[in-house]
Amino acid sequence: MTENYMEQTPEQRSLIGKLLRWCLENKLVVGLLVLFIVAWGIMVAPFDWDVGGMERKPVATDAIPDIGENQQIIFTEWMGRSPQDVEDQISYPLTVALQGVKDVRTIRSYSMFGFSTIYVIFEEDMDFYDARTRILEKLNSLKPGKDYPEGTRPQLGPDSTALGQVFWYTLEGRDPDGRPIGGWDLEELRTIQDWEVRYSLLSAQGVSEVASVGGFVREYQIDVDPDAMRAYGVTLPQVHAAVKNANIDVGAKTIELNSVEYFVRGIGFIKRVEDIEQSVVTVHNNVPILVKHVATVTLGPALRRGVLDKDGAEAVGGVVVARYGDNPLAVIKNVKDKIGELAPGLRTKVIIRDGTPKTDVEKYAQDQGFEPYAEGELDHTGWLKHLRGTPREQWPTWANTSQVTVVPFYDRTGLIYETLGTLSSALSEEMLVTFIVVILMMLHLRSSVLIGGMLPLAVLLCFIAMKQFGVDANIVALSGIAIAIGTIVDMGIVVCENILTRLDEAPPEAPRLEVVHRAASEVGGAVLTAVATTIVSFLPVFMMIGAEGKLFRPLAFTKTFALIGSIVIALTVLPAAAHVMFCSRIARRKLRAALFTGIGLAGIVLIGYGASRASLLIAASGIAMLLFGLYSIFQNTVPERLRKLGPMVANIAIVLLVGVLLAKHWEPLGPERGV
Question: Cα separations (Å) of 77 from 74, 83, 86, 467, 666?
């Protein structure tokens, strides 16, 4: 019985049917929409793709999900005080005061020698920066001397989480060939870290804090002599006040001389040990009592509580902490760019090999016309000027240079790339396997291409949704996409198979657009219901709270995004593309010849490009395009019996080709076995 395809069925008159009808009649709009999705998806994909210099804004990418609590940390330093004093006068009063902050769940405090740490845990739905604002408002309302001791100031920690430590590094002396040579003590390296490297890396985009680790912090140390203080009648507060008042610049008004104004300033900032020694403590019988009369002033290391160890030796380095909400992968790249800018300007000194006679050093310097020593120390300025102007092979064997170099100690980039590589490999292998299965089951190459094209398009839609909803890309979130691959393919198989069946059953005079519309409408509701059922089954995962929710919700989000993307493609793009690929015919012989010749030439170009890049996938794609173009051009000269076998031969060839690619990519027997 011949069906009347001009009379619409209830499915065609439904909302889904109207959507399908609009997409079939507006293929240009659908095509432009596909191009827009592809472009947008490439711009936000978490992979490190090069798009020709265009600025990408990829999804925030990390190795593992952040399952830490929503917490803020408050530090308070009270030098020289016991843990009990710190607990009684800082930790306890601040903990009690912070209890009244909105949405605070619990507060934990730790009191150590001279230091207090308070962890304020907020409810999960509390915004990170709103929590910081509320804590700052509370701290500003507290009064020194009443709520906490005078001379102390509670400080809010960096705006980061426990997973914010994305990059560790050490400072080491390296020779011009990049080999470790040393020559720098721990105090020098710590000074360079604190005053040069740290400030430079803090300016990198996305960096919240750069913490220094290891080495010795240089400080002025004043060791008072009790006997001298008693003899001069000087007290310890007087010495403290004298040093404090001496380390200050003062400014007065201006004076006018000869119609010119001069600013009056008093320069008093301490720059060396002698400045402290010459500070006046008091005056006794018109004789000034200086600091050096009652104390010994030296440069020394500050008290430290720990060290940084690298391969059994002490080292100096830093920890780069990424700001909350920033892309860790992008932050690490910005830090490395800053290190590249900073590296040429780091300090360099000359190293004279131990055991070299001083007379040889002096004689060489005199022969070259510069002084080797200045004030009893090696004149690094003169030596560097000479060595940098001398070819390396002419340097004396006992002289070399050592430049401070930033050496990565822990870099999360490798772990992040491993995570992305896992997803990339899984998607590639799943697409290849799916392509083989679909071809073998349907024995229809064009529908296999359509269904295979759904996979990357659905993944790009998922990336777009992840960017818009703020879902970070990590090993758990990306695994949701891999899990959804099978369901994505199911949507395409159901729609394409029903369209092919209806096209085979329809009479030749039936309008092809109506046939495709009816076929897609028949299964549209069922496809939508199947996907909706799967999405609803994930609702309990969305309801999870705490660490479990932070761990598994990203997976539920990404799988839901992929499923929604697949149903959107199956009900909008797939029917329009099927109508073009299954029903269109190129009538003019010259146009057909030109088109297939172009496909063959493009295949030749791909073969050459793949060979130059050693890419089997690109070369294989070129071979497939070349064979398809040659067959399409000369198919009229092929006998009818062989022509009927053409589609079957093409399917088998494609299956074998994809199988070889899969074997090369997967290597199930191990890499030593080869293809």
Answer: 10, 11, 9, 40, 56
Provide the pLDDT for residue 4.
Answer: 65
Local confidence band at 587 (pLDDT 50, 70, 90 cut-offs): very low
CA 415 to chain centre: 11
Write the pLDDT tens digit of every residue in 14-33: 888 889 889 988 989 999 99
Contacts of 361 (CB under 8 A, 6+ apart): 352, 372, 398
**Widest pairwise Cα distance in the chain:** 129
Residue with tokens 């499923």: 563
138: its two tokens: 């509370």
Structure tokens at 152: 């102390």
Q: Average pLDDT, whole number, for the chain?
A: 84
Residue-by-residue DSSP string for 366-380 = HHHTS-SEETTEE-H
Give the N- to C-terminal CA distance of the chain in Å, as an integer: 53
In 3D space, the residue among 321, 345, 349, 325 whose CA is nearest the CA of residue 335 turns out to be 321
The tokens for 464 are 């777009």
**What number of CA atoms fall less than 13 Å from residue 438's CA on the CB side?**
29
* Contact assessment for residue 206 and residue 234, using Cβ atoms and an 8 Å cutoff: no
d(CA 98, CA 100): 5
* The Cα angle at residue 340 between residues 213 and 315, in degrees rounded to 5: 25
Q: Is 488 exposed, middle or buried (0-12, 13-18, 19+ CB in 10 A)?
A: buried
CA 340 – CA 349 distance, rounded (Å): 20
Which pLDDT tens digit goes with each residue over 418-429? 888 877 777 777
What confidence tens digit (pLDDT) does each residue in 448-495 have?
Answer: 778 877 888 888 999 999 999 988 888 888 888 888 877 788 888 888
Separation of alpha carbons 582 and 454, rounded Å? 16
Asked if pLDDT for residue 613 goes beyond 60, the answer is yes
Query: Tell me: the pLDDT tens digits for 252-289?
Result: 888 888 888 888 888 888 888 999 999 999 998 888 99
* Tokens representing residue 340 in the block: 């590249």
Q: What torsion do the CA atoms of 154, 155, 160, 164 make, to the nearest 10 degrees?
A: -90
CA dihedral sign of residues 565, 566, 568, 573: positive
Contact 273, 247 (CB under 8 A): no
For residue 594, pLDDT beyond 70: no
- Rounded to 5°, angle at Cα 165 from 164 and 167: 130
Q: How far apart are CA 18 and CA 569, in angstroms?
A: 15
Token couple for 4 = 């009347």
Q: Any idea which residue has 């240009």 for tokens?
A: 28
pTM, full prediction: 0.79
- pLDDT at site 665: 66
Q: How far is CA 170 from CA 33, 211, 345, 410, in A?
A: 50, 12, 17, 9
Beta-strand (E) ranges in 333-464? 348-352, 373-374, 377-378, 399-411
Closest CA to 348 of 181, 210, 217: 181
Nearest to 331 by CA among 201, 423, 170: 201
Q: What is the mean pLDDT of residues 334-346?
A: 93
